[in-house]
Fold this protein.
Amino acid sequence: MFTEYMSPVILRPEGSRTTLLTAALLALVGHGYASNASAAAPGVRTVDLVYAVEVTGAPVGAGPVTLWLPVPGDDEDQTTLDTRIVSPYPVTLTKETEYGNRMLVLTTDRLDKDSFAIEVTYRIRRTEHRTDFAATDVRESVNPRFRAPSAHAVMNDAVRGMAKEAVGDRTDPLDKARAIYDYVLAHMRYDKSVPGWGKGDVNRICLAIGKGESGAGNCTDFHSLFASMMQAEGIPVKFEMGYPLKPGEEMTTPNRGGYHCWARFWIEGKGWIPVDISEAAKDPSKRDYYFGALCENRVRFSVGRDIELIPPQIGERLNFFGPDPYIEIGGKPFDGFSRTVAYRDVE
């Protein structure tokens, strides 16, 4: 697949002596939530994930070319242990400061062929997250972007009205969050047959619910509505984009497309609390689990909405970043690519 341009680059987590690049229960007294912080150890999964992008139909001789690829982030739930890159053109690692997202940036002044491919292999360790609702001392300066609407997760009278309907006379932020979580579950259905799904277009969802219908869409739509309603009640929310791992299964044959997203909300003293509402909609038996917990079967690629890349793209800010790359040729967006993911478990 690669020619004489092939050249591997190895990245390891910060703190390693061989670092080159890379940055690398529900038990609240008085609220009655079942416990997620059980005595059993949290689930842990380590995978070698092969992320590949093939560009086709590119205009030979055109340029400049910039291709941004999302890099899985490191946090309390996820650690990138190793990264290996094979690219026909130079690649650098950059990081934007608004959300802290990292990216690999491929650049060339002009294309000498109409197709090329880049492949990145990540070794990632993912740990199940279980919120300790008994915590009272978690403090953080919350990014103002997590309090503000985005181009698609909007703020308007319809959103405010739905939030008020959901929370009623509740005053505790955690109780409000659970009420909004339940409201989204009650008023949304997982359905990718309805036009407009997948963008997180809260106006579209509000229009359907306002007419007495169910809102419909995928994980992006569920968590966009949740974010807008939470922010209407003054509760910060951050959107996380990633890729799902099949529980107990490897995927050794590259799979085209696919993604999964979820959200976290901030409660002073308790920290960032995750929700995965679309997964709870698919499996109602896990409705309580996914309020405050995330299983280990996922990889996070980015955080936030309306994202400006580094170096900045000429086109509009991205609704979300990843797992798909973003490409510009001659200063214009280019979508002639396919993105695949494969993974195997590492003992």
Observations:
- The longest helix spans residues 173-187.
